[in-house]
Amino acid sequence: MRPDGNSIMNQQVTLTRHIIESEHANASAELGSLLNDVATACKKISNLVNRGAMAGVLGAAGSENIQGEDQKKLDIISNDVFIDCLQWGGHLAGMASEEMDSMYPIPENFARGKYLITFDPLDGSSNIDVNGAVGTIFSVMETADPNPADSSFLQPGTRQVCAGYCLYSSATMLVLTTGQGVDGFTLDNSVGEFVLTHPAITIPKTTNEFSINAAYQRHWFSPVKRYVDELLAGSTGPRKADFNMRWAGAMVGDVHRILSRGGIFMYPSDEKLAASGKSGKLRLLYEASPMAFIMEQAGGLASTGTERIMDIMPAELHQRVPVIMGSTEEVERVVSYHG
Ligand code: P6P
């Protein structure tokens, strides 16, 4: 054993140790314990996603969620895994999810705590049947109400105490912030622990890579249309540089790539969404807001095009918002075009 208390074998900093020892120590011991329960849920979902067809969990569930989207079996299973892993810990007063019409109160037979969690249990689940990247997104806030209702969750993103995602891809990675920067942990399947592999993630201020579903180009409003046209014009256009495009079909996959090497992710409002009364596709409380917290903590920006996502006061649980987030210089440009 070395004088610093580390054995030669113990080179790995686990999620639990990191929360206790690092700047996340600002997080209360209670939040640390809740995060360990979240990590357990993510390990279980990772195992189901990785076993896929062998576990008999692929395919449609034959039901629709409140979003009007066909649910996959794994959407529902992942939602149940999250509830089963978190409801008994005594840290939560309630849970809200993309897959549940309204909030889930912690049952009377379990102790309640001061936190609320919103989550998308399996973001990008349409990728599941084609073995594409999928993920879990979560956001933690506080409540003084021991008997919370949907309205208790309607807090601006600035009130989040923690946000994170778990990406189930070539590796399973948990990325989180408690307001003290962003850290990434990779699941070491040999011991079943999330290990600190990407401390203090910071996003490059500039980029030559953008993410948007170009199939909707004919519906875009002019600021986004102008911005993308300039990127596509490349070195012969006003940007005088060539750009690359990536679209993972799962926000977690695109956001993680952008955090890792820069980029801008856009799911803007458009004429088709507006015609159906929607201000965007992505949901504020369990997609846009947690990802905005992470982006800002990593040195990026997150806007609707006209306002900071973290400042939005939600009007209802499944509210949708336009999303433009990533490398500062590019987000600022798109916002200026909305000006
Ligand atoms: P489209 C997944 O359904 C999701 O909510 C995000 O994860 C993803 O970025 C987006 O929708 C994909 O939407 O319209 O390209 O299928």
Structure notes:
- This protein has 339 residues and is α+β, with helices and mostly antiparallel strands.
- The chain folds into two domains: 9-198, Fructose-1,6-Bisphosphatase, Chain A, domain 1; 209-337, D-Maltodextrin-Binding Protein, domain 2.
- Helix content is 29%, strand content 22%.
- It contains eight helices and 15 strands.
- The protein has helices spanning 15-21, 29-51, 73-86, 222-233, 251-261, 271-275, 284-297, 328-338; strands spanning 60-64, 70-72, 92-97, 104-105, 115-123, 134-142, 162-168, 172-177, 182-188, 193-198, 209-211, 244-245, 264-267, 301-303, 323-326.
- The strands form three sheets. An eight-stranded mixed sheet has the order 4-3-5-6-7-8-9-10, with helices on both faces.
- Strand 7 and strand 8 form a beta hairpin.
- Helix 4 (222-233) packs across helix 8 (328-338).
- The longest helix is centred in the N-terminal third of the chain and has 23 residues, at 29-51.
- The model has no long low-confidence stretch (mean pLDDT 94).
